[in-house]
Write a structure and sequence with these properties.
By secondary structure, this protein is mostly beta strands. The protein is 13% helix and 37% strand. The strands form 2 sheets. The chain has an 8-stranded antiparallel β-barrel. The protein has an 8-stranded antiparallel sheet with strand order 9-10-11-12-13-14-15-16, with no helix packed on it. A hairpin with a 2-residue loop joins strand 3 and strand 4. The two termini are 43 Å apart.
């Protein structure tokens, strides 16, 4: 997409003379937490025309301080900033009308008359880390938008993402240990009110996301998702969610078998002990007799990863 920028300000750095010295001092700024923008959502500019994959963006975290960009907490590039009439930001009127419609429908956002914009100073520079992701972007409230290969990429302020997550997943004070087998015929599921990043692969053909709430460990939200599509109606995955993103997933409960080999089955169940350690037990039966019995232990780290 061709975008028009005007009134770009020149960088006024007070960090000292010389590009090398400026770069070193800007890198020193990254000692503070600079991951203030997190991936939120992607939408196709034209329905059924572009496949919008968030794979390269859902792990991107960045911040902009004056004219300096920090990607994953590391200084990378400088940008021009400007404030411009929103209708002038897009080269063609139909693009403005398209964005206006999509932002209202998908984000419930009205484009203001004036928007803040940024443009990478090293556009098309293969050594620019920012250029790998975007060249131009614009801000509306706590959102930042840019276009990539026919898709609108949206990032949101960290604080806003946390608010969404807190209102999205119920919080109940569980007492550990947790040891429960879930009978699928008797389950009343909760419905997730949002879509954390990476949840799409667990939809199992449904529009809504059903879940069972698990204890929260190390400030990480844990939920149990039924993966009852296909030939395995009894199958659950444990998801670790933090900052509106699925960080880890683990198959923890269910039965796996081939329809033509009744009596040969793999049964898995789990428990969480009083220290928050997840124990996953898998038993393999052949002709209804136990052939193997395996127990694995997993710890939930503060960042949501498993080890």
């Amino acid at each position: 997409m061709a975008l028009l920028f005007i009134n770009c300000k020149q960088s006024n750095s007070n960090f000292g003379k010389g590009n090398d010295q400026t770069k070193i001092l800007k890198e020193d700024l990254a000692t503070n937490e600079r991951n203030n923008w997190l991936f939120f959502k992607t939408v196709s500019l034209s329905p059924n025309s572009y496949l919008c994959d968030d794979y390269n963006y859902n792990s991107l975290k960045f911040d902009i301080d004056n004219d300096s960009v920090f990607i994953n907490n590391k200084y990378t590039d400088d940008v021009y900033t400007s404030s411009i009439k929103s209708e002038d930001y897009f080269k063609y009127k139909y693009l403005y009308e398209t964005y206006k419609k999509i932002l209202k429908q998908e984000f419930n956002i009205d484009i203001p008359k004036i928007i803040k914009t940024i443009r990478n100073k090293r556009v098309y520079d293969k050594n620019s880390e920012l250029d790998k992701y975007f060249q131009d972007a614009f801000f509306i409230d706590n959102y930042v938008f840019f276009e990539k290969e026919g898709c609108i990429m949206c990032f949101k302020k960290v604080e806003e993402n946390k608010v969404i997550l807190e209102s999205c997943i119920d919080e109940i004070n569980f007492l550990l240990p947790y040891n429960k087998t879930h009978v699928i015929e008797n389950i009343t599921y909760k419905i997730l009110k949002c879509r954390p990043i990476g949840i799409e692969k667990f939809l199992c053909g449904n529009e809504t996301i059903r879940y069972i709430l698990l204890p929260k460990i190390n400030n990480v939200n844990l939920i149990l998702i039924p993966m009852d599509c296909g030939d395995s109606p009894y199958r659950f995955y444990l998801l670790a969610i933090k900052n509106n993103k699925v960080i880890s997933n683990l198959y923890v409960e269910g039965e796996l078998f081939e329809p033509e080999t009744m009596g040969n089955v793999e049964r898995t169940n789990f428990s969480i002990d009083e220290n928050g350690i997840i124990h996953v037990t898998t038993k393999v039966f052949i002709d209804n007799k136990i052939q193997s019995h395996n127990i694995k232990e997993f710890k939930i780290n503060e960042d949501g990863t498993l080890n």
